[in-house]
C-alpha cells in the first residue's frame, strides 16, 4: 500500500506539472486567457493589483456597443466581479495569483500591412498605477487611443515583461530609454504611433532576447539604422517601414540568420549592396518598397531566397531586366514590382514557374508597346492582378478566362483595343474591375460581358474607354449582380439610356459616376429608386434638368456633382429634399440656374456648396449663417446683390473657403467684428469691400489666397495687413502657394518687402509707386507670378532677379521704368512670359536673356531699346508664341534665324529702324502655315493647385496689345485665334517674298510704311484666312493680283500710296472698300474708284429717229426705265446692303470665272495637242 501511495503521489505530481506545462504561465492569445479564467482552480487576485487594474479602467472608455464585445463589462467592484483573474483580458499565475497578462488590444504584427481599424478604447494616458503589476509578463494595449500622451517611463521597470504591444495607441514623444531594462523582452511592437520619435535606439542593444520587433511608422528623424540591430541574432521578425530612416542598410543585417520577416519599405534608404541577403536563407517576407536602388538592377541574390513567400520591390528606381532567377522563387505568393518605370520586362518566361502566386502587381512598368504574355493566364491561383499604366497594346488574351479565382483585376491606362470581352464572364469571383483608358468602342455588348456574368462584382471602373451607348436589346435584361456598389463610367459616349439599365442595381449602388458623357434631357424619375446612393456624379453632360421625383428617395445622398451641364429652372427644384440631413457636398456650378438662395438653409449637413457661374439673383439670406457645417462656399459669377453682414456668418465656424466674387454685393461689417472662422481662401473680386482695407482680415491667420481685386479700395496697404500676411499660419500643404490679388483698385504708396513672400502676386492697375527693391529684401524663392503692370513705378529695375528662380510670369508693362534691362533677368530659367511694354528702357537686349529657354511670350514694345535684333531670339526660344518688339529703336536687318520660331503666332517689329529685305524663309514658321487654332485663349500652365477644392490657379491667360486695323486693341479671351505679322513703319526694301503666301493661317499681315518694291505676288490669294492686309505707303507697282479677290474673309485692306496700276479685280470684297484704301495709285482704275479704266466703253446716246416701229413710243421707254430700275435695284441693292448675299454672289462669280478659265485652258490644250 505504501508503494501504491508513493505511485499515486508521483502520478499526481506529474499531472500537475503536465497541466502547468500545457497552460503555461504566460498566455499568448485571447483564447488562452479564457482557458485560464475558466480553470477549476480558484485563485483570488491580489487586492493591490486589482485596485491598479480598476484605476487603469477608470482612465478608459469602452466604445463597444454590444455587450458581448464590451471588454470592460467584466471588470468591477461588485461581489461577483471580485476576482480580477476572471476579468476579460486579465490572466494570473496559477501558482502565485499575480497578474501576469493584460491583453485588451488587437493583434497586428502578423499582418502584411496595417489594416483599417477603429480604436477599441479611449484613454487620457496609461495609468501609472500599472507599476503595481511587477510580475506582468504580457502587456498588449494595441489600438487603444491614449490621446497623444507619452509612454510612461515606469514601463521600463516592469522587468518581467516578455511581450509588449503598444501598436496604434496615438502615443507621442520619445521612446523611454528605460526600455533597455526589459532584458527578458521577446516581443516588442510600437508601430503606427505616428508622432512617436526615437533619436537614440541604444537601449535596443540590451534586448538580446528579442524575436519580434515592430517599430514601423515611428519617426527616426532622418537618422541611420543603428548597426547594433545586426547583433539581435534571435530576431525572426523585423519591421521598420515608414520610419524616416536614411543612409545605407547595414551589412550587419547578414547576422540575422533566423530572420523570416524583414520590412524596410518607405524610407530614404539606399540599397547599393544587398549581398548580406545571402545569409538570410530562412527569409519568407521581404519588403524593400520605395527604397532607392539608384538606377541599378535587381540583385541576383534576391532570386536565391527560395523560401520567399512575399516580395515587395515597388517604386525602387530599378532598371534593366528582371532576373530570370526569379523563377527559382517557386513558393512565392505575393510579388509587387510596380512603379519601376525603367524596368525592362522583355522576358517574363520565368513567371509560369511561380505557380503559387496569388498577388501580382507589375503596374507602371513600361512594356514598351508589347502585348500581355499569354502565359499569365496560366497563373491560375491569382486573386490579385494589376497591370495598369504598363504601355501594353493589342488584345487582352483570352487565356485570362483561366484565372477563375481572380478577385481584383486592373488593366487600366494601357492601349488595349478590345474586340470582345468573352473571357470575362469566366471570372465569376471578381469583385474589382478597372479597364479605364483602353479602347472598348467596338464592344457593343459590354454590359452583358462586364456585369451580367459577374455576380460578385463590387467595384467597376471603365473611365475613358470610348464605351458605346447601350444597345436596346440589353436594356431590359435582368442583371445577375446584386453586389455592385461602386460604378465609374465617366468620359465615355454613353447616353441617357444608361439610367434605365442601371436601374437594375437600385438596391446596391453606393457610388455612381457618369460624368463627361453624352447624357441629355432630364434626369429620369427612376434614378430615385437607387435609394442606397451616397455619391452621384453627373457633371459635364448636357442635362437640362431633373424631374420632380428624380431625387425624391435619395435619402442617403451625401455628395452630388451636377456642374457643367445645361440645367435651367429654379434652384429649389433641383435640391434633393429627402437628403436634407445627409447631403454634405453639392456642386451645381456652371449651369443656367435661376432663382434665389432662400431654400438652401434647410440642408443643415452641407459642408461644401458650389453654385458659381449660374444666373442666381436676389440677396444672400441671413439664415445661411445658421448652416454651421459649411466649410466651402462658392457663389461667384452670378447676379446676387445686396448687403452681406456679420449675420451671414454668425455660426460658420468651420468655413475655410469663401468665394463671392463677380456679384453686385456690398460687404458691410463693423470695424470691431471678429469672424468665427479662419479662412484658407478669400475671393471677393468685384465686390464692394472698400474704400479701406477690410479690417476683419486682421483676424485671419491661416489664409493662403486673398483676392480683393476691383473691390473699390482707395487706401495704402496697412501695416497690420503686411504683418498678418507675413505671419499667416499656413499649413504645410500651402506654405509655398500663397496667392494675393489686389489688382484694379486705387491702392497707393510703395510695396513693402513682405509681399514678396507669396507665389502669386497681382497688383496691376493701381497707383502704386516707388521701386521694386522689395524683391531684393527677401530670400523667399516661391514667387511664381508677378504682375505690377499699369502703376506708377519708376527708376531702374533692381539687379537681384537671380534668387527668383521660380518666376514663371513677369509683367511690368505700363509704368515708368528706365535704364537698361538688368543682366540677372537671364537667370529666370522657368520664365514663360516677359512683358516690359510701355516703359522707358534703353540699350540692347541683355544677352543673358537667351538662357530663359522656356519663354513663350516676349513683349518689349513701346520702349527705347536699340541695337540689332539678336540672332539668338530665333535659336534659344523653341517654344516662343508671341514676339513683340514694336515702337523701339532696333536697327539692322531681320536675322534669318527668326525662321526657326516654328511655334510663333504673333511677330511684331513695327515702328523701328529695321532695314534690308524680308527673309524668304518665313515659310518655315509652321504654326502660321497651319489654318485654325486649338483654343481661344493663350493659356500657360504652371505649378499649383486648381479646382473647386482649392482655389489657387495653375494657369493664366496672356493678353497682348497691338495696332489692329489702324487702332490699338487689347486681346485676351480670343488671343489664341490671332496669327499676325507686323513689320510696318521700318525701312525694309526689296520685294515681298512669295514664300510669305505659304503662311495660310495668317489673320493679319501689315507691311505698310516701308520701301518695298516689285509686284504683289500672284499667290497672295492663298492667304484665305486673312482678315486684315495693309501694304500701304510702299513703292509696290504692277497690277493687283486677281487672286486677292478670292479672300472672302478680308474686312480690312489698305493698298494706298503705292504705284499700282490697272483695273481693281472684281471680287467678293474689293469693291466694298473705301476708295481711300486705293488712294495715291495714279494708274489704278475701276470700282470703287471713280476713275474708269480705258477699256470700259463710255455710254452712247442711241437715237430712235430712224426707227419706224410705232410701238416704240415714249411710254415704252418710261416703262422700260421703271422696269430696269426696279430690277437693277432689286438685285444690286440687295447685294450692296446685304453683306451675306454679297459674299455668296461674288463667290459664285469667282467660282464661275475660275471654272470658265479652266475649261478654256483645257480646250486650248486639247486643240494644241490635236494640231501638234
Automatic annotation (TrEMBL):
Residues 188-345 form the Disease resistance R13L4/SHOC-2-like LRR domain. Keywords: Cell membrane, Glycoprotein, Leucine-rich repeat, Membrane, Receptor, Repeat, Signal, Transmembrane, Transmembrane helix. The chain crosses the membrane at residues 1114-1137. GO terms for cellular component: plasma membrane. It comes from the Eukaryota. It is found in: Cell membrane. InterPro entries: Leu-rich_rpt, Leu-rich_rpt_typical-subtyp, LRR_dom_sf, LRR_N_plant-typ, LRR_R13L4/SHOC2-like, RLP23-like. Residues 48-93 form the Leucine-rich repeat-containing N-terminal plant-type domain. Residues 1-24 form the signal peptide. It is a single-pass type I membrane protein. Gene3D superfamilies: Ribonuclease Inhibitor. Belongs to the RLP family. PANTHER family: LRR RECEPTOR-LIKE KINASE, LRR RECEPTOR-LIKE SERINE_THREONINE-PROTEIN KINASE FLS2. This is PREDICTED: LRR receptor. It comes from Prunus dulcis.
Amino acid at each position: 500500500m505504501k508503494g501504491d501511495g508513493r505511485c499515486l503521489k508521483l502520478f499526481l505530481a506529474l499531472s500537475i506539472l503536465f497541466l502547468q506545462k500545457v497552460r503555461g504561465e504566460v498566455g499568448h492569445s485571447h483564447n488562452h486567457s479564457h482557458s485560464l479564467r475558466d480553470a477549476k482552480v480558484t485563485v483570488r487576485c491580489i487586492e493591490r493589483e486589482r485596485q491598479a487594474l480598476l484605476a487603469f479602467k477608470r482612465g478608459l472608455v469602452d466604445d463597444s456597443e454590444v455587450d458581448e464585445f464590451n471588454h470592460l463589462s467584466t471588470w468591477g467592484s461588485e461581489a461577483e466581479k471580485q476576482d480580477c483573474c476572471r476579468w476579460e483580458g486579465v490572466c494570473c499565475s496559477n501558482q502565485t495569483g499575480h497578474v501576469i497578462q493584460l491583453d485588451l488590444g488587437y493583434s497586428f504584427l502578423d499582418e502584411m500591412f496595417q489594416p483599417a481599424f477603429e480604436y477599441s478604447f479611449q484613454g487620457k494616458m496609461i495609468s501609472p498605477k500599472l507599476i503595481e503589476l511587477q510580475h506582468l509578463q504580457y502587456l498588449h494595449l494595441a489600438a487603444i487611443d491614449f490621446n497623444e500622451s507619452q509612454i510612461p517611463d515606469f514601463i521600463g521597470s516592469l522587468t518581467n515583461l516578455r511581450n509588449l504591444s503598444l501598436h496604434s495607441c496615438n502615443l507621442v514623444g520619445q521612446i523611454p530609454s528605460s526600455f533597455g531594462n526589459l532584458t527578458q523582452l521577446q516581443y516588442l511592437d510600437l508601430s503606427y504611433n505616428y508622432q512617436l520619435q526615437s533619436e537614440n535606439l541604444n537601449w535596443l542593444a540590451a534586448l538580446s532576447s528579442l524575436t519580434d520587433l515592430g517599430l514601423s511608422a515611428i519617426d527616426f528623424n532622418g537618422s541611420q539604422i543603428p548597426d547594433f540591430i545586426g547583433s539581435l541574432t534571435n530576431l525572426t521578425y523585423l519591421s521598420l517601414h515608414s520610419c524616416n530612416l536614411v543612409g545605407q542598410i547595414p551589412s550587419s543585417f547578414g547576422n540575422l540568420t533566423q530572420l523570416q520577416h524583414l520590412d524596410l519599405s518607405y524610407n530614404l534608404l539606399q540599397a547599393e549592396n544587398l549581398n548580406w541577403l545571402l545569409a538570410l536563407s530562412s527569409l519568407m517576407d521581404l519588403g524593400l518598397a520605395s527604397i532607392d536602388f539608384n538606377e541599378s538592377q535587381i540583385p541576383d541574390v534576391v532570386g536565391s531566397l527560395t523560401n520567399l513567400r512575399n516580395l515587395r520591390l515597388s517604386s525602387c528606381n530599378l532598371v534593366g531586366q528582371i532576373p530570370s532567377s526569379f523563377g527559382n522563387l517557386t513558393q512565392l505568393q505575393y510579388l509587387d514590382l510596380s512603379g519601376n518605370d525603367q524596368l525592362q520586362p522583355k522576358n517574363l518566361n520565368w513567371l509560369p514557374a511561380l505557380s503559387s502566386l496569388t498577388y501580382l502587381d507589375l503596374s507602371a512598368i513600361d512594356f514598351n508597346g508589347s502585348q500581355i504574355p499569354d502565359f499569365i493566364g496560366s497563373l491560375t491561383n491569382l486573386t490579385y492582378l494589376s497591370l495598369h499604366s504598363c504601355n501594353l497594346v493589342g488584345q487582352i488574351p483570352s487565356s485570362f478566362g483561366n484565372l477563375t479565382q481572380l478577385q481584383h483585376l486592373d488593366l487600366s491606362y494601357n492601349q488595349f483595343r478590345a474586340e470582345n470581352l468573352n473571357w470575362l464572364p469566366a471570372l465569376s469571383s471578381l469583385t474589382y474591375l478597372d479597364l479605364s483608358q483602353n479602347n472598348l468602342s467596338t464592344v457593343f455588348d459590354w454590359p452583358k460581358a462586364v456585369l451580367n456574368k459577374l455576380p460578385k462584382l463590387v467595384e467597376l471602373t471603365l473611365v475613358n474607354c470610348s464605351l458605346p451607348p447601350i444597345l436596346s436589346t440589353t436594356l431590359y435584361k435582368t442583371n445577375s449582380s446584386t453586389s455592385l456598389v461602386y460604378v465609374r463610367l465617366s468620359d465615355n459616349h454613353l447616353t441617357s439610356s444608361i439610367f434605365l439599365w442601371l436601374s437594375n442595381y437600385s438596391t446596391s449602388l453606393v457610388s455612381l459616376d457618369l460624368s463627361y458623357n453624352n447624357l441629355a434631357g432630364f434626369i429620369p424619375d427612376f434614378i430615385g429608386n437607387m435609394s442606397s446612393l451616397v455619391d452621384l456624379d453627373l457633371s459635364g453632360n448636357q442635362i437640362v434638368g431633373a424631374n420632380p421625383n428624380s431625387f425624391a428617395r435619395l435619402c442617403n445622398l451625401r455628395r452630388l456633382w451636377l456642374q457643367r451641364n445645361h440645367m435651367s429652372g429654379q434652384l429649389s427644384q433641383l435640391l434633393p429634399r429627402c437628403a436634407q440631413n445627409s447631403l454634405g457636398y453639392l456642386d451645381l456650378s456652371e449651369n443656367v440656374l435661376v432663382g434665389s438662395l432662400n431654400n438652401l438653409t434647410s440642408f443643415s449637413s452641407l459642408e461644401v456648396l458650389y453654385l458659381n457661374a449660374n444666373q442666381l439673383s436676389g440677396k444672400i439670406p441671413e439664415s445661411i449663417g445658421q448652416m454651421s457645417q459649411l466649410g466651402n462656399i462658392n457663389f461667384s459669377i452670378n447676379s446676387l446683390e445686396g448687403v452681406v453682414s456679420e449675420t451671414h456668418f454668425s455660426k460658420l465656424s468651420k468655413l475655410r473657403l469663401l468665394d463671392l466674387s463677380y456679384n453686385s454685393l456690398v460687404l458691410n461689417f463693423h470695424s470691431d467684428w471678429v469672424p468665427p472662422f479662419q479662412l484658407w481662401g478669400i475671393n471677393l473680386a468685384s465686390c464692394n469691400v472698400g474704400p479701406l482695407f477690410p479690417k476683419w482680415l486682421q483676424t485671419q491667420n491661416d489664409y493662403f489666397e486673398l483676392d480683393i481685386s476691383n473691390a473699390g479700395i482707395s487706401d495704402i496697404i496697412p501695416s497690420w495687413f503686411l504683418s498678418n500676411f507675413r505671419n499667416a499660419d499656413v499649413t504645410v500643404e500651402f506654405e509655398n502657394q500663397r496667392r494675393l490679388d489686389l489688382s484694379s483698385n486705387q491702392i497707393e504708396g510703395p510695396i513693402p518687402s513682405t509681399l514678396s513672400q507669396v507665389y502669386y502676386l497681382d497688383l496691376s492697375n493701381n497707383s502704386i509707386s516707388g521701386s521694386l527693391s522689395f524683391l531684393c529684401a527677401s530670400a523667399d524663392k516661391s514667387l511664381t507670378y508677378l504682375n505690377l503692370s499699369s502703376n506708377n513705378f519708376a527708376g531702374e529695375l533692381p539687379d537681384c532677379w537671380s534668387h527668383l528662380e521660380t518666376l514663371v510670369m513677369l509683367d511690368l508693362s505700363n509704368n515708368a521704368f528706365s535704364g537698361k534691362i538688368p543682366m540677372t533677368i537671364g537667370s529666370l530659367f522657368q520664365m514663360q512670359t516677359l512683358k516690359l511694354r510701355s516703359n522707358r528702357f534703353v540699350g540692347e537686349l541683355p544677352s543673358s536673356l537667351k538662357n530663359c529657354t522656356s519663354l513663350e511670350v516676349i513683349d518689349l514694345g513701346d520702349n527705347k531699346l536699340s541695337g540689332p535684333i539678336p540672332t539668338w531670339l530665333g535659336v534659344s526660344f523653341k517654344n516662343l508664341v508671341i514676339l513683340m518688339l514694336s515702337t523701339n529703336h532696333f536697327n539692322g536687318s531681320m536675322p534669318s534665324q527668326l525662321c526657326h520660331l516654328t511655334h510663333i503666332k504673333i511677330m511684331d517689329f513695327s515702328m523701328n529702324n529695321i532695314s534690308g529685305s524680308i527673309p524668304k524663309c518665313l515659310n518655315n514658321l509652321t504654326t502660321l502655315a497651319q489654318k485654325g487654332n486649338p483654343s481661344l485663349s493663350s493659356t500657360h500652365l504652371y505649378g499649383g493647385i486648381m479646382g473647386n477644392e482649392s482655389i489657387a490657379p495653375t494657369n493664366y491667360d496672356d493678353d497682348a496689345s497691338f495696332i489692329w486695323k489702324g487702332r490699338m486693341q487689347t486681346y485676351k479671351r480670343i488671343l489664341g485665334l490671332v496669327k499676325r505679322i507686323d513689320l510696318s513703319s521700318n525701312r525694309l526694301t526689296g520685294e515681298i517674298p512669295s514664300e510669305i503666301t505659304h503662311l495660310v493661317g495668317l489673320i493679319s499681315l501689315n507691311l505698310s510704311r516701308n520701301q518695298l518694291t516689285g509686284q504683289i505676288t500672284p499667290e497672295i490669294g492663298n492667304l484665305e484666312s486673312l482678315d486684315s492686309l495693309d501694304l500701304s505707303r510702299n513703292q509696290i507697282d504692277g497690277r493687283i493680283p486677281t487672286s486677292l479677290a478670292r479672300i472672302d474673309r478680308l474686312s480690312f485692306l489698305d493698298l494706298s500710296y503705292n504705284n499700282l496700276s490697272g483695273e481693281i479685280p472684281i471680287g467678293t470684297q474689293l469693291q466694298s472698300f473705301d476708295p481711300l484704301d486705293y488712294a495715291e495709285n495714279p494708274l489704278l482704275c475701276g470700282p470703287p474708284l471713280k476713275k474708269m479704266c480705258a477699256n470700259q466703253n463710255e455710254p452712247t446716246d442711241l437715237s430712235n429717229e430712224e426707227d419706224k416701229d410705232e410701238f416704240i413710243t415714249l411710254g415704252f421707254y418710261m416703262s422700260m426705265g421703271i422696269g430696269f430700275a426696279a430690277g437693277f435695284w432689286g438685285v444690286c441693292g440687295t447685294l450692296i446692303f446685304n453683306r451675306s448675299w454679297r459674299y455668296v454672289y461674288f463667290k459664285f462669280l469667282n467660282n464661275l470665272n475660275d471654272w470658265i478659265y479652266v475649261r478654256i485652258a483645257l480646250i486650248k490644250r486639247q486643240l494644241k495637242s490635236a494640231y501638234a
